Amino acid sequence: MMLKKGIHILIFSVLLCVYGPCLAQQEWELIKNKEGIEVFTRTNNVMSFKEFRGKMTIDSRVSDFMSVMYDVEGLVSWGYNLRTARLLERPADSLQIYYAVAKSPWPYKDRDGVYLNKFSWDEQTKTLVVAIELLEDPIETEGNFVRIGGYGSWEVRELSSEEIEIVFQMQIDPRGSIKAWMANMFASDTPFYTLKGLKEALKMEKYQGKSYPLLEN
Fold first, then answer.
1. What distance in Å separates the CA atoms of residue 159 and residue 147, rounded to the nearest whole number?
2. Nearest Cα to 3, choosing from 120, 98, 82, 71?
3. Measured between alpha carbons, how far is 165 from 202 in angstroms, rounded to an integer?
4. Contact 43, 26 (CB under 8 A)
5. Under 8 Å CB-to-CB from 131, ≥6 apart: which residues?
6. How far apart are CA 46 and CA 35, in angstroms?
7. Which position among 65, 91, 146, 199 has the lowest Cβ density within 10 Å, counted as fewest Cβ atoms?
8. What pTM did the predictor assign?
9. Which positions ≥6 away from 160 have C-beta within 8 Å?
């Protein structure tokens, strides 16, 4: 397994992927506003699949969000259409790599991916950013799956001691035989149900009351 190879290059590529295509992107379009969750999509000249952005404000803390993100195996209880997830590496508090499998509608094959998360905390703005990159990693799949690609981020901003704003943004390439028009049908469901599930996860006692050195720097 070559997960550690070129980590610094990968982190740089995350930033490049997240911020580089901005000039080619269109304006965000609000497509859903329900249960306190706003969902936006937009197209760009980089991929034929729509990028999505979900946003909500809830009563919680940044440290609670960190607890949920660190519980990789627990992602299946709230992540949209996830069937399995397991941690591969966490060489530092600010970096983790995990493997996950997502369900696809029949007759398409389920999708799997190797996710790199890079955590960074801005003390001045009280904002946690978790950059996401789907790695082209040689790890073998655990079944007859299609390996997906893409990039994105979580952005969690502390509004007060008991309130946070969460923004979840992704550009996914499902690959395989799924057509762009069909994949784009799920661009509203994925951020909406992921944030809805996260809202419930953040209420769980096991994720609350913990502290992390990263948030104290």
1. 37
2. 98
3. 13
4. yes
5. 11, 14, 15, 18, 116, 117, 118, 120, 151, 153
6. 32
7. 91
8. 0.85
9. none
